[in-house]
Automatic annotation (TrEMBL):
UniProt source species: Piloderma croceum (strain F 1598)
Protein name according to UniProt: Uncharacterized protein
């Protein structure tokens, strides 16, 4: 492991060797364990998302999310921004950022690790299909990262995939079908409790 090159990578570019080198274990958790509640709430503020097509939507925010969903699921070749655009619109609509919260949405932002002993919340998007993550950031992990060393203590990453009706087609369907959309939006609603 001493011969590995230390470089930052996108979450999708990590391999099992990277996880082993950095002593990271990813543990998949069910809904009740990950969110600490068995039944997840549906977001009440955007009922138009219950409609299947964009042309039936009245609420502009709901229209934008579903329109970006369509653009993301059928991207222009070589254009990677569709997922970022979709995610920003969705997080804004779901209330993850606002003036009242004092929180903004930024894409491709470097986040310094200054706070330890807290859970860092993360969402990885594959098209319009999210994977939710919780990482307990320890002082040892921060020091190892700062020194460019491999941490001796195991870092456990809790992971949750929304329980969509057709799990095998999770990535190809994303939020397009209404039944998937209900499940995914419920996870986004419940996940806000981990975002400070």
């Amino acid at each position: 492991m001493a011969n590995l090159i230390h470089s930052s990578k996108s979450g999708h570019d990590w391999t099992i060797n990277d996880l082993m080198a950095y002593n990271i274990s990813i543990v998949q958790q069910n809904t009740a364990t990950f969110f600490s509640q068995a039944a997840l709430p549906l977001p009440a503020q955007h009922p138009d998302l219950n409609r299947l097509t964009v042309d039936k939507m009245v609420d502009n925010n709901s229209y934008q999310v579903v329109r970006y969903t369509d653009l993301t699921m059928d991207p222009v070749p070589g254009e990677e921004s569709a997922v970022d655009d979709f995610t920003m619109q969705l997080l804004h609509m779901m209330g993850y950022a606002s003036r009242a919260l004092g929180r903004d949405l930024c894409s491709r932002k470097d986040i310094p690790l200054f706070i330890y002993g807290e859970v860092m919340a993360g969402i990885m998007m594959t098209g319009t299909s999210p994977t939710f993550l919780k990482i307990l950031v320890t002082l040892e992990l921060i020091k190892a990262i700062q020194r460019g060393e491999y941490p001796a203590t195991l870092t456990i990453v809790a992971m949750h995939h929304p329980n969509v009706p057709r799990p095998v087609r999770r990535h190809s369907e994303g939020m397009c079908p209404v039944d998937n959309r209900h499940c995914i939006l419920s996870c986004f609603e419940a996940f806000r409790q981990f975002v400070n």
